[in-house]
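Journal club prep — side note

Before the paper discussion, L.F. wants everyone to see what a predicted structure for a comparable chain looks like in token form. Sequence:
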Amino acid sequence: MRSLLPLAAGLLLFGSLIMCTSVGSGPGGDAGAPLAEGGIDSAAGEGGASDAAAPHDGAIGDAVAQADQAAGDGPDATGACNSPCANGATCTGGICLGCTGPTVIPADASGDPNASGFASSVAVSGSTLLVGAPGGGGGTGAAYVFTQSGSAWTHTATLSPPAGVTYFGISGAISGSVAMVGAMQGGSQAVFVYEQTGTTWTPGPVLTPAADAGGGTGPKLALDGNTAVVAWPLSTVVYVGSGSAWTAQGTLAPAETPPYLYGSAVQAVAVSGDTAIVGFSGNNPAPSYYSWADVFVRTGTTWAEQASLAPPTLNMSEEYLGSVGISNGMAVITSKYPQNGYVYFRSGTAWTSPNDAGGASFAPPHEPDPAVASPGAVLAGSTLFGLTSAGWQSFELPLVDAGVLEYGASVARSGSTAVIGAAGGGVSAGAVLVYSCSP
């Protein structure tokens, strides 16, 4: 996350500040990286579970959203861009890389004078933004819906929990007309489902684990169309449905556990159509942490592990997992300590990385940074990485002073829209920054 000293900038600012910084991809860079399945495969290539209006959406703090890449943003080996760059981006190594913005949404735009924890989770689907505030709503938590019109985002609904619920909004996801909000209920974790009709969000079923160890502050979750992945304390479950009918379809569990693993836990989940990724962290023993992620695919209604991905330094006191992302044949794993990003591409049923011999694909400059994957790009905290013909290059999203301490506490992507949640401090309850980005 990035800290920002006070700047002479107002709230609700929409600008076009472009500060493009190109960096190498680190040891064993991604130059000439093979893009599987004809490059980054299309949204339809992941199966029929995607929401037609806003495919591969939704994000939550540590968990990840998926996004669609605008036409013409793909890498070109000649170094030229396929079309004029939009969103204030510049042509860099065959892709358009950059963002305009931000539009700043402060906590008080929610209409809640006590929106404590505002932007602890953010999720976006098309022109709809979901912002969680687990300390809002009088202390039980709340989630706020904002709708875009032009460059403005207006508060249109507040989702409030029933009695006995706490930490409501600690996690959240949205895809099309469905929103999910994570919380604690009676000492156990729960996910509350809402469906939109017009401007009204109607409460639906409440998802709870079949077995719960208790504790924690809420589940990790991801949503894409009619498929949701929820990481409970003792299991990671796939749910499918719509409206008031959501049922468990399967459980995602590693095929094998290294014999030296203990204390492992699911740190992040993401889903894109018929593909899901689950990120774990464990110790070997402490303080020698390591991380890995498993990719699962759905055939019909059955989920099976397709690959287990791990940093090349798995057994060398490497990283503690930060987040995972999946988007159309590209998987991303980020670590917190130190800050590294590993990218894998799918070819058939195999997942490989140009960096398997050692080294990270890219290194986020700020820590700890949640990340969100989109075709050919990764938003890690407040840094956008794009896969160019010369490897991964970076763009630092411009920030403004919103009276907050840290930027990048949560992130989300949907199409060209990028969202950064900013943690509050002092009298500030937090803020959300919205950008238009390529790729």
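L.F.'s comment for the group: Confidence is low (pLDDT under 50) at residues 4-74. Keep this in mind when we get to the figures.
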